[in-house]
Amino acid sequence: MKRITPIVIFAVFFFPGFVMPSYSQSYPVRNITVHFHNRIGNTPLELGKQVTNILGNEITIERFRYYVSHFSVVTSDNRTIPLPEACFLIDEEDSSSRTIRLSIPDIPITGIRFLLGVDSLKNVSGTQTGALDPLQGMFWTWNTGYIMAKLEGSSPEAQTAGHRFTYHIGGFRKGMETARNISIPFQQTVTQLTTLHILADINQWFTGKSILRISETPICHSPGALAVRIADNYQRQFSLLSLQ
Amino acid sequence: MKKKPVILLLLLILATGWIRFDQPIHKPRPVNFVIPKGWPKPQYDFSKNPLTEEGIALGKKLFYDERLSRDGTISCGSCHQQFGAFATYDHPLSHGYDNSLTTRNAPGLFNLAWQKEFMWDGGINHLDLQPLAPITAMNEMAETLPSVIHKLQSDKTYRQLCKAAFGDENMNTRRLGMALSQFVLQLVSSNSKYDRVMRGEDHFILPEQLGYAIFQKKCESCHKEPLFTDFSYRNVDIPLDPFLKDIGRMRITNDRGDSLKFKVPSLRNVAMTFPYGHDGRFFSLQSVLEHYRNIHGNDPQTDSLLRNGLPLSNFEIGQLKAFLYTLTDSSFLKDPRFAAPGMLFNGKPPADIHQ
After folding, report:
1. How deeply is B345 buried, as exposed, middle or buried, from its count of CB atoms within 10 A (0-12, 13-18, 19+)?
2. Whole domain around residue B255: which residue ranges?
3. Does residue A129 form part of some domain?
4. What is the extent of the structural domain holding A83?
5. Confidence class of residue A141 from pLDDT cuts 50, 70 and 90?
6. pTM for this predicted structure
7. Mutation for testing the B interface, residue in A13, A141, A173 having most B CBs under 10 Å
8. What is the ipTM of this complex?
9. Which residues of B touch A18 (CB under 8 A)?
10. N or C: which end of chain A has fewer CB within 10 A?
């Protein structure tokens, strides 16, 4: 028997089918879809179409993108269970990107949490692939780091060439962090969740925590105080629209 | 004792689980990274990107491939020339796409494995990510990443080289960076006269010996041996250029205290990397040393080591220069492993080099 033990250990650890145990071993899994609905107030976002933002400025949005990652669910006894690590790029231009699929533990839950942006570790560990491939255009090459979120367009308010405003928000170094923890409480305990509809309201970019006037600051292109201010605003852009 | 064959059989069955029939028999051949004697531990994490002959070959091809630029005229090697220790030989600033100029002096490329942050301001935090900056900069190669990756994916040779190096043909941004790193990591310069003297294989002549003593007293605190830099960012009282308006490290940290700080450059091969300084404003070693001895240290931002100036007599300057010349590693400048395809391996700039 003594002889067999190491072999058993060997077999368990080295057999190719071996997978690390994760939460999915302790709970049955369910697959859900999460839809992100980008809006300006109550108006669904349409790229290239002029709308009025919450400050009364005429704006035409041409690009709206953000990363979401590190999803977790909140249990009825208020524990947070992280889901397997995944990062998604939500891109208004690409409608399929606005629906993501997650596998969550099949237990009663009271909310969902995620990170708006990319964690700092991925900002310092070389080149990533998939949604995080630098070729997605959400990456600064001269000052290594991800752009967590991008909002671009034009407005008569912007005193720039083509009246363009460009907000490229990123930064992970201490004091310049722009990734934000988002919490979407359901206000009830939900079992057998299948679909979540989450609203992202662009108006929050302008008024979330402090006022952002396009006339004063039409451009943000690097990490720093302005980026942090805008991140504090967009932190409030998400809310729950509905769930099934 | 009877159990043995059973156990062996069991092991054999288990082992077959590892065999994958869809994989080529040829495995990339590993390459050992040699750390010169007495040097510190490299910063680069080789475990995440193990060196192989195939990976290095792919990296070399990429390094010298002009198709990485928008109009197919500029390669990494256009700005990083072997005869200039992989700096741009005799250019304060380098030529980029469509008659543009870079805003900084191209540094020599060597001993990158020991470096943690790249560029004069340290803005890039991983060697694998470095190529993305020149590829996409409008005043360098002016390309987009999707377009470069598309070009590489549609090229059969690249697909083959990629498969040989990484196991399949999928050339992507990550592998582009990994392969280029594998090549530039090979650029180790550790065989100058200085190194031979340190190894006890050679002797300094008197001016070199005196220069070395001055160096250790006055320069060593920043240009630390054996890499000849401590990789810190320092303000050595070089005034802001009104056109380039380059604030150095502060661009990355937003910290006023980092204004006009630049990375301490290595002085290895320094005789070959002229002009000098982050914007190439010093045309000779003489002018750099003149700058040092004229520092008044009035500016509170100037590095504390230079606050009282750095006095150097004409004699000392002559001896320092004699020492600095011993840092030229001619075997590195001529190493055929690093040479551009079709170049002579004589380590000399071509006669028709343009300005």
Report:
1. middle
2. 193-330
3. yes
4. 29-243
5. very high
6. 0.88
7. A141
8. 0.81
9. none
10. N
